[in-house]
Specification:
By secondary structure, the protein is of the alpha+beta class. 25% of the residues lie in helices and 47% in strands. It has one domain: S-adenosylmethionine decarboxylase (4-Layer Sandwich). Strand 4 and strand 5 form a beta hairpin. It starts with a strand and ends with a strand.
Length: 119
């Protein structure tokens, strides 16, 4: 008998490279971009947390009803690691496109993984 995948959701892992260091460096610049990306995806935002590193760099989480968004930045390298796990009806691709534009990234390398198990 062939097994079936019991899928809970999809996990998007994104590497943004060639970014403008300015939005990656400070919470006050990244926060509105990151929250808007979540809104653009159709996610239901429950809460968020942003941490400012010194002298620069940000780690942030947005807790959504569908699961989460996270981002970690390295402004000195023009790099941001972003992920979104969704188990609901939303459009992560919209968030990825919005962040690519907002971070002025030259490239967004996206991997998508099915989350669940084989029955």
């Amino acid at each position: 008998m062939k097994s079936r995948k019991h899928e809970f959701g999809r996990h998007y892992l994104v590497e943004f490279t060639g970014c403008d260091p300015e939005p990656l460096a400070r919470v006050e610049v990244l926060r509105p971009l990151f929250l808007q990306a979540a809104r653009d995806s159709g996610a239901t935002i429950l809460g968020s947390h942003f941490h400012q590193f010194e002298p620069q760099g940000v780690s942030a989480m947005i807790f959504i009803a569908e699961s989460h968004f996270s981002i970690h930045t390295w402004p000195q390298d023009g790099y941001a690691a972003f992920d979104v796990l969704t188990c609901g009806t939303m459009f992560p691709e919209r968030a990825i496109d919005f962040l690519k534009q907002g971070l002025l990234a030259r490239k967004a390398e996206v991997s998508v993984m099915s989350r669940g198990f084989d029955e």
